[in-house]
């Protein structure tokens, strides 16, 4: 598991260097939001996944650089784990939690696990703002 997370972290660093933050966010967002359980909240807010990911990308880009990079890296790690688990956010989070709590956890795994709650709160806030704006992006 540790090797998997180290490999994913290395891939994410290389990916982030080769593409803009906007593109990196949108790709990871679309992967994570493809899970039916995750997608349900977005659709209940009368928002499409595409518009949600585009809007959240704009909001993430406005964050301070360190916060933006942390959000992108955490979402990308979640997306990569979801790919490994046939699109299941629950299974990906379970692996992320186990890796972050392991005795031999890498700093990247610990950081990703620690940042999941904050990222989840940010994503909920972004969705609430869109819901309050009638399904449109408030920024």
Describe the model:
With 139 residues, the chain is mostly helical. It has one domain (2-132). The protein contains seven helices and no strands. It has helices spanning 2-18, 21-32, 36-44, 49-61, 65-84, 89-101, 107-132. It is globular, with a radius of gyration of 14 Å.
**Which overall shape is indicated by the principal axes computed on the Cα atoms?**
globular
Mean pLDDT: 85
Class by helix and strand content?
A: mainly alpha
Q: Determine the N-to-C terminus distance.
A: 39 Å
Helix content: over 70%
Determine Rg (CA atoms, Å): 14 Å
Structural domains: how many? 1
Low-confidence stretches: 5-18
Q: Give the amount of beta strand, in percent.
A: under 5%
Helix and strand sequence = HHHHHHH
Number of helices: 7
For the sheet with most strands, the description reads: none
Question: How are the elements arranged and paired?
Answer:
Blueprint: H1 2-18, H2 21-32, H3 36-44, H4 49-61, H5 65-84, H6 89-101, H7 107-132
Helix pairs in contact: 1-5, 2-4, 2-5, 4-7, 5-6, 5-7, 6-7
Q: Brief description of this entry?
A:
The protein is an all-alpha fold and 139 residues long. It has 7 helices and no strands.
Q: What key phrases describe this protein's structure?
A:
mainly alpha; 79% helix
